[in-house]
Structure prediction request, 277 residues.
Amino acid sequence: MSNENKKIQPKTIDVFCAKCQADTAHTGAVDLNGELVFTCVECGGFIKAPAGMTAAEIKAHFEEHKEQNAGQVSVQGSIDTLDEVMGGVPEEQEK
Amino acid sequence: MAATFDFQEDNGAATGSPAKGTTRTTGRTECNWKNIDDSTTAYSSSPITAGNNSYTKFQFGKFSGTFNQISAGLFAHTAGTLTNMTLKHQKAMTADGDNMTYATPSTAANSNLTVDGTTAIAIGSGVAVWFGATGPEATGKAATMTTNPCYTNWLASQLQTASNAAAGDIPSQTLTLQYNEN
Prediction:
């Protein structure tokens, strides 16, 4: 048998991402400080949990994180919308 | 006449009840997240090593001068890009108990900072800020305040970096506190 086609999928957990404004897959890792780092696979944003938190506390932290960050209107989002709206309008020609 | 506004910052060991910092500095014009708990050391002398976090910054606003009422407070990160790092700050005030409790600042990820302010947002969708007498640590915060002087709740923040954060200065960031006075 060949292992060439086997791909190891890292474990992920769905957590709300403030930047993506959606529940997205996050990988989990423990950093050098023993803190838990959950990284969004879509945008690279991350949530840290201090060392010593229990699994239940982390899940509660995720829930509060979603409650506190849902609905943010990013400045970049407004710029993108403006570009989209203005996309078909030619720039004024210099006289 | 108008209200006089001042950003201030607490540092050092928690003292008193309700807790506040041992040192209170007035006239803050920056919020340099760094690897030391003070308001004086140049950020370039105490950089955050990639993968670590800054000390939590406990800043707040003070209103004095002439005003009848301060109200409609909002706080947000409104300009600047952050790459491979997360900016966390105080959550919205919906009750007096939503204000943070001052704790001796450290570099551990502060789980009490639940708002992800990494992405610059419109101030209109910032977190609600309340006001009260005595200081940011005091109970009795409310959405409007007529007491003079008065203070915001804690506007605490922490920069948390990833191991792949680039060396050197981050771009300039803007934190905005918006309020009404009359």
User: Anything to note?
Assistant: Residues 3-181 of chain B form one domain. The mean pLDDT of chain B is 97. The two ends of chain B are 10 Å apart (CA to CA).
